[in-house]
Amino acid sequence: MYIPIKSKVNAEKNRNFIKKDLQCRNKSVISPCRKTSINELYNQNKLQMKKHNFNAGPSILPREVIEDTAKAVLDFNGSGLSLMEISHRAKDFQPVVDEAVALFKELLNIPEGYSVLFLGGGASLEFCMIPFNFLEKKAAYLNTGVWAKKAMKEAKGFGEVVEVASSAESTYTYIPKDYTIPADADYFHITTNNTIYGTELKEDLNVNVPMIADMSSDIFSRPIDVSKYICIYGGAQKNLAPAGVTFVIVKNDALGKVSRYIPTMLNYQTHIDGGSMFNTPPVLPIYSAMLTLRWIKAQGGVKEMERRAIEKADMLYAEIDRNKMFVGTAAKEDRSRMNICFVMSPEYKELEADFQKFATERGMVGIKGHRSVGGFRASCYNAMPKESVQALIDCMQEFEKLH
User: Fold this and answer.
1) Contact (Cβ atoms closer than 8 angstroms) between residue 118 and residue 100
2) PTM N6-(pyridoxal phosphate)lysine: at which residues (predicted)?
């Protein structure tokens, strides 16, 4: 920081500070003079130890998406402006939204009569928007974890909420199977993947009422029969984009059936009519989402993402089941492909902190379990390379040999 100039000594200190500051700026990635190119930065990073990003969210993105987003941050489409400073009404940005919507519909095979929206507020805001738009009298919820429970809590302010089943008594280590959904429910809400506990619904359910799903963490990891749902939503920061954008797939003719007044910003129809631009949208995350969708398509689409997800999950679960030092926490039939949760075996419990340190020293990032359950969690989203999963397996085997 600058020093008040009360002497020649302080003046000299300020001159030295400014000189060092300018030198630092010229070396900085975010330098106003843009002295460091994206390629130079990438080459510098390659000299560092390989990092394996298992964070649960925000999480790993494809390298191409990161590089192309970074280029657009410096100069968007040759405009001379940063992606962060363009107007969302600029002629170059509307095609980004249009392409993102088109890719959503293509990759998920979304039928006619559905709209795709890009909003703010995260899935947590959708917990409120869902009942605002769809709950007239009664809604049914399947309680499979913290996020499902939070969605239920919000819905209780709008009508009767029926918890058809819960696995809370077992710390959400399984997904309930036997339950009855009220025939007069306005909708049935599910959370398809439970990041904290490592459980997942891997197939679309067959139910007799309209269905709504929070797919924040497993969207694009498997094919979906969208026609079974009136709404699918999620925060995009786990399997699609940087934090800041929420995706919503909504069936158009399911709207307008509640009698209450819906505030303008919380009304899905507002955003359908405004093309996701009723208010200023999250420009940068939408652009990154579009790039990720391009990447998924280029890789072979959602079926290929599912194949890779199964392969990576099977590899890691096989090691967890083989290794005497670790135990999986989720019921085997409900194990998530996206978030693989495990703990130390009881006889090695005291080594939990040691393994965390051991793994961190070998480049594993974000494997610490959620604070509410402890243990470990390896999030293997679409962009996670098989090589990183193998690196974690090698780390577990090396630790086993030492103990």
Assistant:
1) yes
2) 238
Enumerate the domain spans of the chain. 1-36, 94-299, 302-402
pLDDT given for residue 372 in this prediction: 87
Which residues are known binding-site members for L-glutamate? 89
How would CATH label the architecture of 302-402?
Answer: Alpha-Beta Complex (3.90)
pLDDT at residue 3 in the model: 46
Closest of 379, 381, 373, 334 to residue 146, by C-alpha: 373
Kindly report the CA angle at 374 between 120 and 326, in degrees rounded to 5? 125
Which has the closest alpha carbon to 400: 358, 367, 360, 340?
358
Q: Binding site for pyridoxal 5'-phosphate: which residues?
A: 123-124, 147, 195, 214, 237, 279-280
- pLDDT tens readout for residues 157-166: 999 999 999 9
* Residues belonging to the active site: 147, 214, 238
How is domain 94-299 classified at the CATH fold level? Aspartate Aminotransferase; domain 2 (3.40.640)
**Which pLDDT score is estimated for 50?**
80
3-state secondary structure 110-128: CCCCEEEEEECCHHHHHHH
How far apart, in whole angstroms, are the C-alpha atoms of residue 214 and residue 311? Answer: 24
C-alpha span between 194 and 191 (Å, rounded): 7
Q: What is the pLDDT of residues 114-133, one digit of tens each?
A: 999 999 999 999 999 999 99
Question: CA 29 to CA 292: how far, in whole Å?
Answer: 23
